[in-house]
Amino acid sequence: MRIIGHIKQIDMFRAATESGKIHSAYIFVGQSGIGKKLFTLKVAQMLNCQETNIKRRPCGLCSQCKKIETGTHPDFITISVLEDKSWISIEQIREMIKGLQYGSVMGGYNIRVIDEAHLIKPEAANALLKILEEPPKNTVVILITPMPKSLPQTILSRSAIVYFNIFSDAEIRDELKDFNLDEDELNFVSSLAMGSLGKAIELAKDRKFIDEYKNILADFKEGKFVNKRYERNEAVEFLNMLASQVRFRQPEKLGVVLKMRDFIRRNTNIGLTLEVLRLSL
Ligand SMILES: [Zn+2]
Known about the structure:
The protein has 13 helices and five strands. By secondary structure, the chain is of the alpha/beta class. The protein folds into two domains: 7-163, P-loop containing nucleotide triphosphate hydrolases (Rossmann fold, 3-Layer(aba) Sandwich); 169-280, no CATH class. The structure holds zinc ion.
């Protein structure tokens, strides 16, 4: 998979590599599914790539780039919440610190990524702070989170913060080219994804979900709701989806969709309410 939409950030890291001004701590901020994790891999490749012309980094072909890509590079390690836990523990951070104190195995940058860094336990955050205060040479710690404010101020103040923008509709549609979706389906998926590429791909893969939605939409357009074929929660769910599409394509109609959704929530007749909505769209 390639990265799209992060050109500015990549250029920023390339410039930092050229001038040797790499920070020892970064916080990557943005909602989930927009490629932040993948981007850390590119940063690691950029820093450790063997290509001497930095403008051509990362080459993706040298042994460093390949090891990073396949997750076998000893100096590029990601820490995340363990499967049966809900926090990043102090043990995990201690082990990470130990690895950093030994220094880089391959002689380049020693990079650690902490995914979902907002789930770090307070005592683990304190331990992390110590290594950020006095980082060993060529250490880079990257914290990934959509909620930087949930991190201690002491960590925030020692880190460079990189914000990731959400993807544009055009970028998402372009990335979904290979999923064989028709125009209607593309509109549906990209409007539901609301800028999250990960979410868009997840939806595009879910044929059953797309077909169900299309069936309901077809029934809706033909006014087949009057016989109350759908359950209340199904109707509400449908209107939530319709709302996210309308928000995109006909923002002036959003109000009426949300209003009808709230009517249905409050036990109005589903068929009649949807019929009123259909006639007003
Ligand atoms: Zn390379």
